[in-house]
Design a protein that fits this description.
alpha/beta, seven-stranded parallel β-sheet, 10 helices, NAD(P)-bd_dom_sf, signal, oxidoreductase, oxidoreductase activity, acting on the CH-OH group of donors, NAD or NADP as acceptor, NAD
């Protein structure tokens, strides 16, 4: 009996692995079928995450409206998507729209241009984000306002402009790609964390308001989204709890992983996703359940004057 059990174990593991692989492939194909023919608007499509979202949704057969503040880079993304399109599958030529969310005076007009592309919007992916790092007293009020314009006012103006169409058709989904700093504050990122808290608060409220119209509001909160080829630096990071925690927090997630999660969020109509490894997730719970402990750890980090590289 014991020998039989030992022989059966590898077969059992192989069977489980096969079932997981089949499930993942079916989920991937199902995700793509969900967005087939859907009008998907992606802001800051020229960023690392924006490009990956464009790739995933374009492959899935979505009618893309790609927004960005640099026409040459938008055109390069357009060319890249067209060059890798599979002729055996139905894909649509992306439409390009110049949009700088930090210039809130033009967002309303650009929203009309976005609607004119296909006459409606099924899925809006609010992806644009601007980062800044430094002591609060050294960050100018002008820069604070710029961060709020790009990370908060710009996305909500665009959302408000496109929302009536979704409500009238009683269908649609709005995805906010936020940051874990919308849930907890990290030193030397006051303006950035404030803008992310504000955005998360707005879309949490909006979710309840539009539920009766069958409009879904989703938030995806990763840690920092790293560039394609950046790996965590080597060094004595384990010298303190603070440094170890910060290394895990700032290493971040890969754009490909976040884009795939955005697709899953659209397919499953998830309301909230926290895309992070266990340590940042634990920090969110510690901040809620044991705030004094969290504040003590954070204060210890400030005293050590840790300098963390910022991407972008």
């Amino acid at each position: 009996m014991g020998v039989t059990a030992v022989l059966m174990l590898p077969l059992l593991l192989l069977g489980i692995s096969g079932l997981l692989f089949i499930y993942q492939e079916v989920s991937r194909l199902w995700s793509k079928s969900v967005v087939q023919n859907k009008v998907v608007v992606i802001t800051d499509a020229i960023s690392g995450l924006g490009k990956e979202c464009a790739r995933v949704f374009h492959t899935g057969g979505a009618r893309l409206v790609l927004c960005g503040k640099n026409w040459e880079r938008l055109q390069s993304l357009y060319d890249a998507l067209i060059s890798v399109a599979d002729p055996s599958k139905q894909t649509f030529t992306p439409k390009l729209v110049l949009l700088d969310l930090s210039d809130i005076s033009c967002v309303q007009d650009v929203a009309k241009e976005v609607l004119d592309c296909y006459g409606c919007v099924d899925i809006l992916i609010n992806n644009a984000s601007v980062k800044v790092k430094g002591p609060a007293h050294k960050i100018s009020l002008e820069l604070d306002k710029k961060i709020m314009d790009a990370n908060y006012f710009g996305p909500i103006i665009l959302t408000k402009a496109l929302l009536p169409d979704m409500i009238s058709r009683r269908t649609g989904q709005i995805v906010l790609v936020n940051n874990i700093q919308g849930k907890l504050g990290i030193p030397f990122r006051t303006a950035y964390a404030a803008s992310k808290h504000a955005a998360l608060g707005f879309f949490d409220c909006l979710r309840a308001e539009v539920e009766e119209y069958d409009v879904v509001v989703s938030t995806v909160s990763p840690t920092f989204i790293r560039s394609y080829h950046v790996d965590p630096g080597q060094g004595n990071w384990e010298a303190s709890i603070w440094k170890f925690f910060f290394r895990k927090l700032t290493y971040g997630t890969h754009p490909v992983d976040v884009a795939e999660e955005v697709m899953r969020t659209v397919r499953r109509k998830k309301q909230e996703v926290c895309l992070a490894n266990p340590i940042p997730k634990a920090a969110v719970y510690i901040r809620t359940l044991f705030p004094e402990l969290f504040f003590a750890v954070v204060a210890c980090g400030v005293k050590e004057k840790l300098s963390v590289p910022e991407e972008g």
